[in-house]
Amino acid sequence: MEDRLWYKTSAGRFSEALPIGNGALGAMVYGNFPEFRLPLNMDTLWSGKPGVEKTVKVKRETLEAVRALIDEEQYFEAERLMTETMMGPWNEAYMPAGVVSVRFCGMETYGGYRRELLLADACARSSCVCGFGEVRTESFVSGRDGLLAIRITAEKPLEICVKLSSILESTEMASDFGYMLLGEAPVHTEPNYVESEEPVVYGGGMRYCIVMRACGTDGDVTYSRDGIRIRNMTKVTLLTAAENGFCGYCSPMETSYEKMAALAEESIRRVQGEPYAVLRKRSTDSHKALFDRVQLKIGNGEMERFSTEERLAACKKSDGKGDPGLYALLFQYGRYLLICSSQKKSRFSQPANLQGIWSEELRPGWSCNWTTNINLEMNYWLAGPCALSECEEPLISMLEELAKAGEETARETCGCRGWAVFHNVDLWRQTSPVGGNVKWAYWPMAGVWLSTHLYQHYLYTNDRTFLRETAYPILRGAARFCLDWLREGKDGKLHSSPSTSPENSFYDAQGRVCSVSDSSTMDRSLIRELLENTREVCRILQEGPELEQEIAEALERIPGFSVGELGQLMEWSRDFEECDPGHRHFAHLVGLHPFAQMNRRDTPELIPAVYRTLERRTEGNPLRIGWTEAWLTNFYARLSDGGQVETHLRYFLGSCVYPNLFSLHPPLGESVGEKEIFQIDGNFGVTAGIAETLMQSHMGCLELLPALPDFWEKGEVTGLVARGGCCVDIRWEEKHLKEARLRPQMDGRMKVACREPFWAVLPDGSRRSSEEKEGRWDLEIEADGGVVIRLEGSLGSGPSGR
User: Fold this and answer.
1) What is the pLDDT of residue 376?
2) FRET label pair with 116: which of 30, 388, 549, 672, CA 20 to 30 Å apart?
């Protein structure tokens, strides 16, 4: 079975094109004839510039006035004061760099069209048959060489015209080396949902350069300001490199086009003499080193003979059950997208944003920034279990920068030590509140949540050097912020105030819509998780005994979870009436997932409230949002509810993806300028959810097949990673575990669990049987080598170990 998306029809829009990228440079391959186009993106090309003051300075008496109003249950008045005094300027926006266009001259009609994306090769192809015989294109962005390569071949000589263009201010020209575009991004771009007389402002924005050269051709090449013309060719490789002026979020930008062009030209010069096959193999090998770590097969693969668009259509007609292999493709597509949009290619490499690395709009949805109240976090849930921890490196670098930039926000906006980040971040590391509505703009918990990823990264990699040198300083600063932000309430407990629950609202006693109170459930869950993570790191490293003690005392005084009159988990510290019971966010359930503060083993009394909350959010709600369905998949996997996992996976494929399997976000009707858009968090979140159905390790135990959907009757996965670094292969038949192979990274004891009785073959050949405990079967073993797990009474071989 080969992981690929393929189509019989051409791409007419962005959501039908096929993505390629290397973490720094991205492209969307439309793959059409006779007009072939590829929109380009650079991960550091944004509007704006360094050094713009955006700190929101809040007087101490203003903050205390807000808190006093909240204490008096005057929530509406508190929110009004916050709107007047605590909101800031907007983020900047992620920019498109340009478009590569190739016109096949004289191609009037064609047939036999096909385009495809090879996930394991990170390569997009298209082909047709016309008067020039078979014409083929092959496109990839090399992770090793840092450039875009487009290979075009034809059976008979033809002529092509190649052009660069951009919707940004730009000019094209020929040079002694080749053909280039010189552009400049806006110095400011208003969000798409903001009405403005001048939404895009030029003058002093980031400069950039795109350089192209035709190599390995048998045709006649000419360069001019109108582009590249190649006559009488049957083969050519178009190499494209790009550079921009970004030199760091707080450093002056490079403004010399000559320097940028020289760097781009040098990238091409290094490889222009090499055969195309060598370039292609080097790029493929670099990608495969990550992608090939995990393989997933579900079903018998019989639907792979149909195109992806045909499979999607059939999936909707069969209510998602007729093609289990499509979920395996969706899983691998999520891994592919993370590899292509988040790799450490330079010290300036950026994490995957709201659209990964792919956008072609001047004012993209939600500025295509990093939204930190769920979306950025969801982007990286898959990294550890899906064997892509290296892809977290740009996120970790961002956190190092945010911890530095956020010190001023913690001090000037919140009156605290440490560092803080609010709900939107851009390239320039704005950490303060943006403009707009308090219910989403005022949320200082982003740094708290994001810091928990550092501890998870350590759990998957066992990298103690990283823990000491990188993670601990960031965690320590975030913990200090939390300890200062918490304040004693009338009940003697520690509360966060002011507090919101993104992005939801409630009615106050007068029936007015409010979003501000104290100690939302999400705040308490995030602060508790961060403090517990930091305390554990202090113990591991034997660092900071005073901080450890301060944390221990605070944890004793943070309120726990509460259940409301309707049987639901309360979202706020009081049982307010929600304005929107079917709200898209599940902020108060972070303790269930991605954390483990609520679970069947330790808090069984809360599980009915969790189910009631999920029911209230989803019953009768026709709005299907990709990332929401992805999070629901994860929730129900944590609840070991394969039936509901199946339901929301079907909703995801049936209602939440475009033809190219990009996850979609429909308009919410909350502000002007909204429209249906691609938002990549759904792809990443659903991949993490599929991994959770196959294996979980968040409870100090490796659980096999905890939430398998019923229609996944048979399958096999290799290469998943559990916390502690154990590599896991699983095979199942007739919905029952057949065999699993465990390959621990470190020696020591480990616990394995399954919903059925099993036995283990240990490295010395001895056999141990599981014991039933509370409805599942557990076994604790010495993991000092490979372990084979089989169902009681089963025989035969399973997945071969790597």
Assistant:
1) 98
2) 388
Strand 220-224 to 695-696 pairing: unpaired
Contacts of 253 (CB under 8 A, 6+ apart): 49, 50, 206, 207, 245, 246, 247
DSSP of 131-159: TTEEEEEEEEE-TTT-SEEEEEEEEEEEE
To 10 degrees, the CA torsion angle through 622, 627, 630, 634? -110
CA pair distance 783, 307, nearest whole angstrom: 44
DSSP 204-240: S--EEEEEEEEES-SSEEEEETTEEEEEEEEEEEEEE
782, with CB counted inside 10 A (0-12, 13-18, 19+), is middle
Residues contacting 289, CB < 8 A, separation 6+: none
DSSP string, 280-342: HHHHHHHHHHHHTT-EEEES--GGGGS-HHHHHHHHHHTTT-S-THHHHHHHHHHHHHHHHH-
CA dihedral for 714, 720, 721, 727, sign (positive or negative): positive
Q: For residue 131, how many other CB atoms are within 10 A of its CB?
A: 12
Nearest to 227 by CA among 177, 317, 163, 291: 163
Chain length of the chain? 802
- Interior/surface letters 496-515, b for 16+ CB within 10 angstroms, e for the rest: bbbbbbbbbbbebeeeeebb
CA distance 487 to 287: 49
Which pLDDT belongs to residue 554? 98
What is the structure's pLDDT at 476? 98
Distance CA 266, CA 258 (A): 12
Tell me how far apart the alpha carbons of residues 690 and 326 are, in angstroms, rounded to a whole number. 12
Contact indicator for 31, 17 with CB cutoff of 8 Å? yes
Residue 532: its pLDDT value, please?
Answer: 98
What is the spatial distance between Cα 414 and Cα 516, in angstroms, rounded to a whole number?
16
Q: Compute the Cα dihedral for 485, 535, 520, 452 and give only its sign.
A: positive
State the pTM of this model. Answer: 0.97
What's 467's DSSP letter?
A: I
In this prediction, residue 260 carries a pLDDT of 98
Distance CA 58, CA 83 (A): 12
For residue 463, the SS3 value is coil
Which of helix, strand or coil describes residue 507? strand
CB burial string 133-148: b at 16+ within 10 A, e below: eebebbbbbbbebbbb
**Which secondary-structure segment (H or E) carries 466?**
helix 464-466
Please identify which residue in the block is written with the tokens 């659209």.
355
Task: Give residue for tokens 């006093």.
Answer: 68
What are the tokens at 65? 């006035």
- Residue 96: count of CB within 10 angstroms of its CB: 24
DSSP for 759-801 reads EEE-TTS-EEE-EEETTEEEEEEE-SS-EEEEETT--S--SPP
- In whole angstroms, how far apart are CA 212 and each of 28, 141, 276, 351, 609? 17, 14, 16, 26, 59
**Structural tokens at position 568:** 């639901």
Q: In a 10 Å sphere around its CB, with 0-12 CB exposed, 13-18 middle and 19+ buried, how is residue 581 labelled?
A: middle
Q: Which parts of the chain have pLDDT scores under 50?
A: 795-802
Q: Are 580 and 574 in contact (CB under 8 A)?
A: no
